[in-house]
Predict the 3D structure of the following.
Amino acid sequence: MVFDSKNAVAERRMRLPADTRREQLIAAAIRVLRSDVHGDKQINWVAAVVSEAGAAKGTFYRYFPSWESMLGVVRSRLLDDFHAPLRAALADDNPHDWLKLIVEQCERLVDDAFAYPVHHRMLFHYPLPGDSMDPEEMGTSILSRVLRAGTDAGEFHGITDCEATATLLLGGMHTVADTVLSRGERSRWVGEFARQVESIVRETPVNSAVAR
């Protein structure tokens, strides 16, 4: 009997649980996007992902209707990991340095931009078909809760609208990441962000009736 290795590999692929195969494709897509090998060249992204995953092209479309839909899943996965430290801090009752956590969040955003030097804009700057990211996924809601926690702990004194402040801070983080990605000088821009955030969250509001 002749052993057909190709058929054996194909059979093993088919035996993988659906969730396992889907996760393999997502992990492969993340590895492809982290690589700068492709640069800005026009490539077949689906082919690159299935090659990286050791899967068939038809397998990709069994789980994702298009490359854009895969990008949406990858972006959600990356953002979920990005926000994990803040969610963990909010979930426990231990005291935290909330200002430090905000600055570290900015640093992580800079690191993520460098992890995807070529494809950062593809993932985070352009809308994807059917885009409807909620505030929790974008980080506005989580950052707003951090600001509220810092205020309740007596660490922050100058915030009158946590949601609005969170939106502005998140925009500042993205600006820092884009600037460092294009110009460098990480310590300069992150340091200035930290100073500006501190001036915002620790300044007593002029119209505050109660001094904290």
